[in-house]
Structures are given as C-alpha cells and as structure tokens.
Write a structure and sequence with these properties.
single chain, about 475 residues, alpha/beta, Alkaline Phosphatase, subunit A, Arylsulfatase, C-terminal domain, 8-stranded mixed beta sheet, 4-stranded antiparallel beta sheet, 12 helices, 12 strands, about 30% helix, about 15% strand
C-alpha cells in the first residue's frame, strides 16, 4: 500500500536518488534566527535555506536535552520507546536507526562534527569499562563514515573528506553537527551590541543578562558562517539541485526557562528544509511537529519503507503543501541530565508535556524541587540574578518564575494568548475540561510507551 508513493518520492526530476545532508546546531531555540523574525540577528546563509525551501515554526524536540532528543531524531521513535531517558546511555544495539536503513538501501552514510551523543560518555572511566565489556558503542557499525570534532575548521575537513570518499554511483546521507550555540560562548567577534538587543519577553533587563544573551547570539551568527561554508561546498561540487538539506536545533538553548525545561525555549527549535526539485520555495508551516518526524521524512525521500515501529510522521507532504498537519498532539520528556548526582534539578528532574494546537500541559513529577538552570548556574548573570532575588530587587513576576520555592505539579498554558507561558491556568474553572482532556491523552501516551512515572490521573477517590 505504501510502496508506490515511497518509490515515487525517491525520484527527483533528474531521475537520480536524492542526497541528504542533515545539519544540527546545538542548544538552539526558535526564534533565534533572522528568518524567524528575530531583529537582533544576521543569519543570511540559514535565511537563504528558508527562502529557498520551507520553514517550520512549531517544531518541538522530544526532550530539552541533547541525548534524549537526538535519540528520537535518529530513530523516529519516542524517547521512552527507545529507552533513552538516561543521559549517559548508549543507544541500544537492537534499536534500528535511519542511517542503517539508508545504508541497506544503497546510500553511503556518515556522521561528522560535534559528538552525536548516542554512544555513551567515556569521560567517566567506570562507564567506559562497561561500554567496552559489553560492546555498547555501536555507531561504528551503523554508518560508513564516523568522525567527531567540535572545531569548525576540522568539521569542514571532515565533510569534504566524506564527499570525496562518497562513491559516484551511490546517493549519500551525511549528518553534520556543530557546537554552536552551546555554552561556553566564545564567538566574541560575532556578538551584536548588548545595549541594542531585543531581550525575550519577560526576561529581567540587566547589564549581565544582556551581555550573556549577546554572546549567545554571537554563537548563532558564527554558526551561520559555518553553514554558509557547507552550502558553498555543496554548490561547488554541483550537488545543490539533488540534495535535500535540513537544518534543525537539537534542543533549546541554555537560556532562562530554556534547556532542561519543558517550556517553549527548551523544546521549540528552528527547522528548515530545502530541495530545489522537491520543495516549493518560500513556504512557512505552522503545523505541530516532533523530532520523531525527521527519520521517516528522510526514509520517504530516499524511497525506503518506513518501519511500523517509527512513531514519527513523514513531512514530505508539506514540501508542496505547507498546510499539512501530521499531528494533533506532540509529546516530550524531561529525564536525567548529565552525569552528576541528583542534588538539584540540574542533573535530575522528571517531567512530561503534551502540546496541542492551542493548549499545552506540563506534568512536573518532582514538583517539590525548585528550578535550577542547566549549564549556566555558575554564570555571572545568574549569580547576579540570585543576589537580586535574595535582596528582593527582582520584579515579582520574574522572581516567581525563576526562584519559586517549588513548582506546580501541573501547568496549563494557552499558547494562543500566552505564547511565553507566563500564566498557569491549571486552577481556572473554565479550563478544567481541557486540562482533563490533555491529562487523559498524556496518560494514554505514557501507558503505550511504558512510562515509569506515576500517571497524571490517579484512581478516583484515592487522593
């Protein structure tokens, strides 16, 4: 039944199979590109991709953390389904990735650039011993070419080497990962003027907050130059017309209420796709999308059957019709982060969220614990905000959002009226029905994917 459209999608106007290049930025929230309307940025190369292809405004990763999110990107499956809610876990060998399926279909495949996060972490010697003992690092067997480096010049050498090695009689797939805009911020020469920045709504406006945000945007502007270098290489080699280029952030930025949280800045990422022969240029899609959708999209483009185990939906129909809506709801998880002990919500927090076209529900299973930021708790701007909180000098609403002693177990937001998620409607009488509907759908999803958290709807009369 599915075979005919898949085979048809594999053929470009030239009759050749489509090449695929997948570009990942690291810790990159929407809307921080100029093509997404952010005024303090200049990103002409990534903007060109959007002008020549399709830009998705509501793409959500399956977790606000690198490992968990990338597991879903690589497999097309729920983070829970592939048992990847532990930050330090290698992807199980029995879980099939889309590069493996592309390889079996005749593609030359590769991964290069910043670590792809799915082979575990060897910086802890005791973990490395386990990886070696049980042969848990599997990606050397999943792709033809595997190189890692955080350095942009080395990344350039890697993808040019890959393209040199790619057999002329085969299509190719290559994932190129960049470190920007992950902390630590080092793109000093690319920073905009902190004094002229438009800060995200609701942020405290201090000198140190502005300087830190300018450094983050500088990383994105440096990233844009690196992406331009890659796009120029594709064009120079005559590959532009028959190569699908997809750009995405792996999860949200390490910003206030960003990375490590289930709020918009933690999950909503830029997603852009370009293919001159397949994608109608200049489109904007406002459909709700999941990181799970990337894998089935690449498989359909390549003419490879999409396994029934993949829970994502192909985005190929949106290439010509941006109004395509693959999901009614998407889901995300917050699991253990990094390798530290559970002394705060930096390393250990557990939560789930369901996002619909208008409403979003967050379930904070460890609601008693206050918010502690991921990756910037020791940064000067946060220490300064902590001091202002202690001295009672912060705006009351800002103070409550960042420094509340505990969180609500459930948070309900009207994304249409409150896109920044400032007003929790969970206790609103007029929103009880929608809150119950979202809890019920979240409960269904948690049951289907064998979630280990307590379900959001308890037995009647027990609580």
């Amino acid at each position: 039944m599915w075979l005919l459209p898949l085979l048809l999608s594999a053929q470009s106007k030239s009759g050749r199979p489509t090449n695929i290049i997948f570009i990942l930025s690291d810790d990159h929230s929407a809307p921080f590109l100029s093509s997404y309307g952010y005024p303090s940025l200049k990103t002409p190369n990534i903007d060109r991709l959007a002008q020549e292809g399709i830009r998705y405004t509501r793409a959500y990763t399956t977790a606000p953390q690198c490992v968990l999110s990338r597991a879903a990107l690589m497999t097309g499956r729920s983070t829970l389904d592939v048992q990847m809610t532990r930050f330090s876990a290698p992807l199980p060998a029995e879980v099939v990735t889309y590069p493996e399926l592309l390889r079996k279909a005749g593609y030359y495949t590769g991964i290069c650039g910043r670590t792809f996060h799915l082979n575990g972490n060897r910086t802890i010697p005791e973990s490395a011993v386990v990886y070696d003992k049980y042969d848990l690092e599997t990606f050397k067997n999943r792709v033809d070419y595997l190189r890692m480096s955080p350095n942009s010049d080395t990344i350039h050498l890697q993808y040019t080497e890959f393209l040199d090695k790619a057999p002329k009689n085969k299509p190719f797939f290559l994932q190129v990962g960049y470190s920007d805009p992950h902390r630590v911020f080092t793109a000093k020469d690319n920073e905009p003027d902190p004094a002229t920045l438009k800060l995200p709504e609701g942020w405290p406006d201090t000198k140190l907050v502005r300087e830190d945000f300018a450094a983050y945007l500088g990383e994105i502007q440096r990233l844009d130059g690196d992406v331009g270098r890659l796009l120029d290489e594709i064009k120079k080699r005559g590959l532009e017309q028959n190569t699908l280029v997809v750009f995405i952030g792996d999860n949200g930025g390490a910003l206030l209420r960003g990375k490590g949280t289930l709020y918009t800045l933690g999950l909503n990422v830029p997603l852009i796709a370009r293919h001159p022969e397949r994608i109608k240029p200049g489109q904007v899609s406002n459909a709700i999308l999941s990181g799970e959708d990337i894998a089935p999209t690449f498989l359909q483009v390549a003419g490879v059957a999409i396994p029934k185990t993949m829970t994502g939906k192909s985005l190929v129909p949106s290439f010509q019709q941006a109004s395509y809506e693959p999901h009614e709801y998407v889901f995300a998880v917050r699991g253990a982060h990094g390798h530290g002990l559970p002394t705060s919500t930096v390393h250990f927090d557990l939560g789930r969220t369901i996002i619909g076209s208008r409403y979003k529900l967050i379930y904070n299973a460890l609601w008693q614990l206050p918010y502690t930021p991921v990756d910037f708790a020791a940064q000067p701007f946060w220490l300064d905000l902590t001091r202002m909180h202690a001295e009672g000098k912060l705006d009351k609403q800002v103070d409550q959002r960042l420094f509340a002693d505990r969180r609500a177990m459930f948070e309900l937001f009207d994304l249409e009226k409150d896109p920044n998620e400032f007003t929790n409607l969970i206790d609103s009488e007029q929103h009880q029905e929608i809150a119950h509907q979202l809890k019920a759908r979240l409960q269904e999803w948690m049951i289907l994917y064998r979630d280990y958290l307590p379900l959001p709807i308890p037995p009647a009369g027990k609580y």
